[in-house]
Inverse folding.
């Protein structure tokens, strides 16, 4: 691991410190997590959904499936 120095606006640092206090973690842990989630964004492990058929309903009608006997 390497050490760096980052300048933050007062409101940014205040927000980080508040979240750190509420979550029981420190500011460095929050920064590490944010970088992993936003900058490094791990790729999805596989397809989220696969559908080979013709759609029978629009997405706004998704509850209509419960209307059929």
């Amino acid at each position: 691991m390497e050490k760096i120095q980052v300048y933050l606006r007062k409101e940014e640092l205040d927000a980080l410190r508040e979240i750190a206090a509420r979550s029981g973690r420190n500011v460095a842990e929050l920064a590490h997590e944010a970088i992993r989630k936003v900058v490094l964004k791990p790729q999805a492990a596989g397809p989220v959904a696969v559908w080979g058929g013709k759609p029978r309903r629009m997405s706004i009608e998704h509850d209509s499936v419960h209307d059929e006997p």
Summary: Residues 16 and 22 are 10 Å apart (CA to CA).
